[in-house]
Every structure is written in C-alpha cells, then in structure tokens.
Amino acid sequence: MASEVEETLKRIEGQRGVVGTVVCNADGIPIRSSLDGVATAQYARLLRKLTVMAKSAVRDIDPQNDLTFLRLRSQKCEIMVGLENEFLVIVIQNLHQ
Amino acid sequence: VKEQVTEDMLNEVVNIYLTETETITHLDMPGISVSVDADDAEAIKERNNRYAELCKNRMGNDKYMDRSMQAFIGASKSKQVQCDSIVMVDTACEATTWDMYDSFYGAEQDKTELTAEPEKSGYSESIVNSSRGPEKTTSLLSTTSIGNTTLEDDAADPRLILQSEKFQKVLLVMERCILANIFQPKLAAYRQLPIVEGKQWLSPHRSIKHNVVTPETMEHREEDVERSLSPTLESLWVFSCELTKGRTISCMAWNKKNPDLLAVGYGEFDFRDQTPGLVCCWSLKNPTWPERVYHCNTGVTSLDFSAKHPYRLAVGMTDGTIAIYYVYSQDKTCAVSSSKCSKKHYSSTWQVKWAEQDMGLSGDDKEEALMSISADGRISKWFLHDDLDCVELMRLKRMQEEKDEMETEVKDKKKKGEILRSLNAGFCFDFHPVDSSIYLAGSIDGTIYKCSSSNSQQFLETYSQHFGPVTRIKWCPFNPNVFLSCSLDWTIKLWIQDQLTPLLCLTSTQKQVHDIMWSPKWATVFGAINEGQMKIWNLDYSTLDPVIVHMAAPGVKMTSLLFALQTDCVLVGDNSGQVTVYQIKNFTVGEGTGTVPVV
C-alpha cells in the first residue's frame, strides 16, 4: 500500500506542468512536500484558510454534504486541493508552456 | 477575653456590608432649588430678595466689619494603591447551519463514545485553543459543546495518513484532474465535445510547440481545413507506460459496462519468445498509467470482458491456461485459473469469448459461458463454479481425415488414437450475433468451420478458400448473414453464410492481415491491419481500395485493432507496447442498409 502511494505521488509530481505537491494534516501543518520550505508554508497556510471557508460554505447550504475537491484556476496556473477530514493534498500545475 | 487573632484569621477575606438605618443614610444631597409651585415659594423668594439687598448694602456700611481668622491645616500625605491589571478578552461566536447540525447529530452519535476522560481533555484543549486567536473560535465552541474525541484524531500520525485508503483515493482523483488538464483537447475530441479555440494549453507531446493563436494563423488553419477534406486519421493520444515498452500487443477489449475501461493483453506471437505476459486495464481518464496491472506467467493471446458480470475478465495465454480476473478488487492475482483442470488446453489458447448459451431444454434459459479455441484443435466451453471446469464443444478435424474416418469407421472402429494427432489447430472464432449457438471457427490450414453448439460431432458447413491460417473471423453486426475473414495469405474475404465461395476477396498489399473488425457504427465499413498499415475499407464506396490507409511509424508493426463503440475513434496496438487512439476525420458514409448486393 505504502509503495503504491509513493509511486502515485511520484507520478503526479512528474506529470507535465506540475510545479509541486504539498500534503498537510488537518491543522495545516505540512507532512510532505516537493517545494521549498517557504513556499510550502505559504501554500499550506493560505489554502487551509480557503478550504475551511469553502467547506463552511458547502455545509451551510446542506449540512449532509461535504467538500471533496477544490480547483482554483488562474491565468498562469491551476491549484487543485483534495480534501478529507484528516488531511489536505495540494497540487499546483502550470497551464502554459 | 479577647479572641486570639491567628494568621489565618488575618488572611481571611472578611466581607463588610454597609446598609442604611433610620438615622444614617448613604447619600444625602439636599436640593438647592425649589419649584415655583411649592408652598413656601413666596417666603423663599422674599428671603432671597432680603439677602440680595443685604449684600448690596454691605459695601461702605458701618454695620459690617472685615476680620481675619486662622485655621489649622493638616499635613497631607499621598498614598498609593495597586491592583491586578484588568484583562479584556474579545469573544465572538458564529452559528453556522452545519455547526448546529453537527452539534445535534454529532452528539447523538458520540453518546456511546463519551467517557469522563475525553471530556476533561476536551476542556483543557479548549483553554489552549482560546489563546490561538479568533480563527479557532468556531472549533472551540463545537468542542466544548460536544466534548467528543475528534481532537484526539487531530494528532494522527502523518505516516498513518499517508498510508490510508482515503489518501489513495484522493491521489487517484488528483492524478485524473491533472491529466484532464493535459489531455483536455484530445479527450474532448474523443468524446465529440467542442474544442475551445484560443490559447493552447499543455500539450502531451513534447516535440510539438503551441503558440498563441493570432489572426494570421487562424487564416492558415482555415485553409488547411479546406485542403484536407479527404478522410484521414488523426492521432489523439497513446496508452503507454514503462511497463509496456517493447511488448507486443496481442489483443484489446472494451469493458461491457464501463465504456471508458479498456483491457489490453501483451504477449509475443513468436513461440520462441517466452517472456511473461501482461494484462493492463487502462482507463480513458488516465493514459499514462494503467488502473490495473496483472502479470501472467506466459504471453497473453486473448482477452474478453463478460457481459453479465462486467468485472470478470477472461484471459487466454500461450501455454493454454485460461485465467479469470476480477477487476473490481485491487488484488493482483487471478481469481480463477484453469491450470488445475484436467481437460485444459495443452497448446496456446488463441481466443476466449463470453457468450450466452441456452442451458435448459426450453430454450429460455440463457447463461453466460466462456468459450475458448486453442491450437490443440479443441473448442471448449468453461463453467465457473469454484474452479474452472470445461466441456468440449467441438474438435476441429481436418477435412481429409474426416473422409478417411468415414471410410475406416466401416472397417475398424478402434482407431481413436489418431484423432488427437490430426486435429486442426484453431486460431479464432466468432459467435453469431443473433443465434448464439452457431459459431464460426477458423483454423491454421485456412479452413473455416461453421458449427453449432448443440452438435459436437459434425460441422454444419466448411469453407475452405483461404490458403493460409485464418487469423480473424467476424460476423457483421448489421447483417446476420454476412461475415468477414482475414488470413495470413494476404486476403480478406467477405462471405455470405450459406455460400461456400466468398462474395468478395480483398487484397490491397501483399502483407499478412492480422486483425479485422467491423465498425460498430457504419454497416459497410470495417478496419484491417496488415503488418505495417492500418486500413479502413468502405464497401459501399469501393471494393478495390481502402478508403483510409495509415502507415505505421518505421520499424513498428501494428498488431491489433479495436473500434471505439460510441465515437468515431479506432485504437491500434503495435509491437512497441503502445496503443494509439486515432480519430477518424472527414469520413462520410452514404445511406446504406448494410445488405451487400448479391453478385
């Protein structure tokens, strides 16, 4: 199991355009990251805030629903956040060559 | 006797209460003005006037004299008092819908889990939380109200997170999202969605450079479109990964229930090459890595997904074993294998297929069984109970031998030992689309046998017009009387069911034809693979030449062909381990009913 997870993560990190990946726990503390320390902390902190707000919004409308995935597309890149109760997976992908 | 004043008594906090009595009051502020309506107002007014006159007359009047006095002024002393600083705390509260929902339903669920200890820890944690700032207030309130055990989960081991199944699932979705970004235009073309014009996003091909579309290039594009109106194949993407590099693709099959799932079998055609085979299940949503990988002992020759149980994948291999894999689980081993069966094939299983067969006498009972044809000349029907077990449907006897047999039977009935030696190796078969008890089998000497599953001794019909091994037979899905066969003798023949000579014989290049398939969409169209070329024929248009000819890359031989069921795409597998998805462009077919005119 662990090796498959490692393989999948490596494949994701090696995909075309992917800048980096950050895995953090429920408190926003990075567990594993392919970016440098400053960028990791920044992404983890900012996206944690955003996901808390997004989750609150989704659940406000329907408390039985829950947020599973968040995609933020900007001019230069796309930030994808996969959510679960215990952790957060953040992937940043550049969109242009 | 005076009470002894102890240290403790001095430190004791003594409360002193001040109350009013009848003679002592806390506050006495006599009023200095009287209402105009009061009773003694007149008297007070007169007094005020008299006093004012008195003050006026005071100046220079002998009745009054100034005199000074001296009073004692006490020495003043300043005294300081100190007290604890008064702490001000801001509290805020947010009552969201989900917060209330969680409180009500979460409390109900956790009632069984609550013990004394978690409550205490919850409380102490909440004190710590309050110092972290306003961000935490919502979680603070929810923990104090529920006092449940979620806080303890927060401190989960990072390694546990990384190994959990949920993590694996999230990564799967993430990978597919990323790939959707990369392959967006190609997948959109496959699914026949409009492609967004404009800035080119990421391209999966590293060699192609995409520029921002300017008005000049737009004009260019339009000209190109006008020029290339002839039918062509456009390559969309390639299914390939490190595992599959260099392997020959022997067969491909779509899943009957999930149209995005493709199973590809890798195995060498050459008997001398004994590399272990591989089966990969690819999903359209991830062209860079297969969803399932199964390693097999020997090369894989054929695959089929079951229609009734869409998770069952039957695999035929070069050592004659048939294995069934259950695709839904992550288990890498096969669920059932025929290696222990005593009646298994002892030579390569060239084709496997799931087909519905009548089980009961009434003819209404239809059960799905697995059929296989192999190089040992037998067609078997397999049953899946606990293990695979088979029943022989037919033996492919050579035509010559049959005639001899009939003569010798009259003389001597004991010559059964010769039957095994002289069986005709079977290469391929296909079941009739309407009446699934009739099937066609192709053999290594070019004979095609038409058989019925109810008669295992005699053939219904034999067609022997091919000079080389018949590699593929396919019934036409639109016309139940027509079938196509292709063989290593460079020809493709179109037959009508009851005629012993083919209606049409198609040859375009002098190369062995490995695979053919009818198009699921157009009645008169089929595709064929020679060694280095992929051809699409349209019988309505021309019976001499194929409509589209696509050359393979130099050094690469194409080996397998599959039409996509709902879109205009065709998949081609080659001997370098790549499955390329092509989109058929500019292909128009006239309104044909599919009935080929009888010559």
UniProtKB/TrEMBL annotation, chain B:
Q: Name one GO biological process term.
A: cilium movement
State a single Pfam family of this protein. WD40
**Which SMART domains does UniProt cross-reference here?**
WD40 (SM00320)
Which segments carry the region annotation Disordered?
113-141
- Listed InterPro entries: Dynein_IC, WD40/YVTN_repeat-like_dom_sf, WD40_repeat_dom_sf, WD40_rpt
Which is one Gene Ontology cellular component term of this protein?
Answer: axonemal dynein complex
Tell me, in one coarse class, where this protein mainly resides: cytoplasm
Q: Keywords for this entry? A: Cell projection, Cilium, Cytoplasm, Cytoskeleton, Flagellum, Repeat, WD repeat
Enumerate the GO terms in the molecular function aspect: dynein heavy chain binding; dynein light chain binding
Give the location in the cell: Cytoplasm, Cytoskeleton, Flagellum axoneme; Dynein axonemal particle
Q: Where is the composition biased (Basic and acidic residues)?
A: 113-122
Q: Where is the composition biased (Polar residues)?
A: 123-141
* Record has ATP-binding as a keyword: no
Checking PANTHER family in the record gives: DYNEIN AXONEMAL INTERMEDIATE CHAIN 4 (PTHR12442:SF12), DYNEIN INTERMEDIATE CHAIN (PTHR12442)
Write down what this protein is called. Answer: Dynein axonemal intermediate chain 4
Species of origin? Myripristis murdjan (pinecone soldierfish)
Gene that codes for this? DNAI4
